[in-house]
C-alpha cells in the first residue's frame, strides 16, 4: 500500500492544443467553457503535479492549456516518474517537500490517494502555492474545511476537480432547471453501474482503493462522487439521506455497491446507486423530471429532452442534434479512460483566477458538499437511520 508518509516525504510532474474561452452564463454562477483558438494572458503560470496515476491526466491538461507550463512532477514510483519527465521534458522529484520549494512552481495539482488530499494541499498552501485538488477534496468534510482554511490563511486559490460541470450538455441542463423550464423539480435520480476487476484494488497502486482510511469508501466515494456532485449541482443541496451499502463482488474493506434515497432542499426526491460489480460496466444514467418536463442523459449523451413549453419540439431537436449521439470508450469499465478536456478547462480557469485575483469557478468550497453527501450515505447505511444534513 502507498503510505501517506512516503508521498509526503518522497516525491518526482507542453503545449499541444491551444484553447480559448467563451462565457456561458447561468443564473447564479458563471461557468467557463473553453473551445479551440488562442487566448493571451500576461504571464505563464508554472505547475507541479504530485501523484502520477490520475495525475497523468493533469499533466496532459496543463500541457494543453495556454499560459500554463508543466514545471515538475512528483511521485515515489520511479518508473512513473521517469515516464512523465521524459514525455514532458519537466523536472522530477521524489520528495514532495523539495517540489514545494521550487520557485518556478506557482500551482500544485494534487492527485494522490484521496485520504492525502487535504494534508498535502495544506502543505502546498503553507508553501505559498495555489492548489488544484483531485476529487474528492478529501474523505471527510472536516478535512476539507481545514484545506479551505489553509487557502484563506495563505491567500492562495484552491480549485476542485468535478470536470463534468464544464461539459456543455450539463451546463445546458442546469440552465434549463434554473430558468424554470422544467417547473418544480420532482425526481432527481443518478445511477452508476460500473465494473472494476479485483486487480484494480491490488498491487502497489491499487491497495489503497476501497479502503476507509485512504479512499474514504468504495464505489460511492471513489467512482460515484462525480455523480453525487452532478446531482446536487443540478438540483441544489441535499437535506436528508437514507441508505444501504455492502461488499458483494470484491475482496475489499469498503463497499462495492451503495443505494440511497435523497431528499433535496428544493423538495425533490431521488435515488442514487453506485457499484463496481456491474459487469462489464454500463453508462452512468441521470434522470431528472419536474412538473413541466423531463431530461435523461447517459454519460455525455442526451437521451430525452421533453419540456412542455417546447410545443413544436424545436428545442428538443436542437438538443438532440447537439448531444444525442456519442461514441467512444468511457470510464464505466476502464478507470483510465478519462477525458482531460474538463481538467484543461479547470487549469485554464485557475490561471485566469490568479491573473484576475478572483475565486476559481469550481472552488474547493463548492466541492465540499459532495463529500458531505457521501459521508451522510455511509452514516445512514451504518446506523439504519436517515441522516439530516445541515
Account of the 3D structure:
This protein has an 8-stranded mixed β-sheet. By secondary structure, it is an alpha/beta fold. Helix 9 packs across helix 12. It folds into 2 domains: 4-164 and 340-364, 3-Layer(aba) Sandwich (Rossmann fold); 166-333 and 371-383, Dihydrodipicolinate Reductase, domain 2, CATH 3.30.360.10. It has 12 helices and 16 strands.
Secondary structure: number of strands:
16
Give the CATH superfamily of the largest domain.
Answer: NAD(P)-binding Rossmann-like Domain
Using the alpha-carbon principal axes, give the shape. Answer: globular
**CATH topology value of the largest domain:** Rossmann fold
The mean pLDDT is: 89
- Give start-end ranges of low-pLDDT stretches: 1-41, 336-340
Give the proportion of residues in helices: 25-40%
- CATH class of the largest domain equals Alpha Beta
Q: Architecture of the largest domain in CATH?
A: 3-Layer(aba) Sandwich
- SS field, number of helical segments: 12
Overall tally of structural domains: 2
